[in-house]
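REVIEWER CHECKLIST
Item 1: Sequence provided? yes
Item 2: Single chain? yes
Item 3: Sequence as submitted:
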Amino acid sequence: MSTAADKNQAVKAGDAHPAITLGYLQTVRQAWCMTARDWRAGELTMLLLALVLAVAALLSVGFLADRMKQGLARDARQMIAADFVVRADHPVDAMFADRAKSLGLETAGTTIFPSMISSMAAQPSSRLAAIKGVTPGYPLRGALRLAPTADAPGVPVNGIPAPGTVWVDAALLDALKTPVGGSMKVGTKTFRVAGVITREMDRGFSFVNFSPCLMMRADEIATTGLLGYSSRVTYRLLVAGTDAQVEQFAQFARDKTYGGKLRGVALESLQDSQPQVCQTIDRASHFLVLVSLLTALLAAVAIAMAAHRFARRHLDGCVQMRCLGVSQRTLRALFLNEFLVIGVIGVIGSVAGVVLGFGGHLILLNWLGSLVDVELPQASLWPALQGIAMGLVLLLGFALPPLLPLTRVPPVHVIRREIGDTQRVAYAAYGVGVALFAALLVIATGELKLGGIVAGGFAAGLLLFGVIARAALWAAARFVRRERSGAGVGWRYAMASLESRSGSSALQITALGIGLMCLLLIGMTRNDLIKGCATRRRRKRRISF
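Item 4: Structure as written out by the authors:
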């Protein structure tokens, strides 16, 4: 006959009854029944709702960020009127154009130099101008805007000036007192002014470009007699095409220019020729990525809290099944199958979140109003795939850890309310979830440093706010118990209830702290970005060409 100590040991070991083991089909059927019961009881509603809202919130920003990135990249390339430029102080070697054509790239050329322009009035006057000769196809990216008069709004125009005509800046018309339709003398040849340039794509910030521009056909420059020995001329070969084609040409150009040590030849890309634009793009991109990451962090907290509530409600039921003889293996199989069903539901919820997120980003665009006054490209599928992957990672990394202790809870929990070493298993699972989440952040940002900083800040914030929440609960409970505190019975019962569930209470306080921190960080970053954009706008107004 067994002693009482043996019985207690048997209860602790989970062997109070012969272990009950279900077959595979029985396990699947029981898992479906448990899932249906939890769904009818509303147990999974909070978890699914948190997942749908998490994906929707993430993709509301993700779709907007994707479209703005595409728009910024598109408009940024228009700043150099091409995807890649070969610049030289002598006519660009024909091998570059031949290589570009062999790769299927579009090409165009410009010839830029300063010269004096004279009017044909009774009292002629002269003005220094930047003469730009262009070939057919210019610009390869974007469009010139031309106006029929100096006061009229510009409209996009295709092509280049007709033979015998030029397009000029309004400042040059004012300086020479010449109307549209009048004539100007360029070198030894006279040209008719056919339009006013209101927008020029690739005007840089070199000294010559601070003068008014006169645009003409490149094949008519020789007739002016302006080019000769020691002329300060810049020749540019513009190329445009797909990213893969441009990268192949850029590698060829670098090998020939830097490897062959060609003199007087330089290569331009957006990063080289327009650093101020790249800086704006990087800042805006980092802000949008930061918003997306902080949204994902809030989603992780929401998923974890919903799963924790689900696990807490099922803890006593699992203990009862263990006391009735259900083995850990059977219990693990039941919850694994139920979690797989939840995973399928989670995928459906993620798809629903994608749809809601797409609609949410349209609402955000409407709220932005005049701040985004350009037509943005259509969103790609990458944010949708990223959102579904994020939903699965959130489900696996932050919903599964609270469920793992359910399969390892000892039967003695029904008497002593002990959970044994299951808490360490949950912490280990949370560690795996945080690692997966950090990896997804790095993939989303494309930068190891930024993803690591956000993931590390999230972990540090959880730890810091968790410690503060525990300390605050402990201090508040001790203060209320003091006789001289003046707290009523209601306050004492309230603090006792919070202290008895200190873990869940601290988790809720931590989630609130993380949310407020994210909102404050987004607000501070947004204000700095808007202030920087306003400063650049004021500086731009001071510059007149």
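Item 5: Key structural point noted by reviewer: The chain has three domains: 14-79+274-446, 84-273, 448-540.
Item 6: Recommendation: ____
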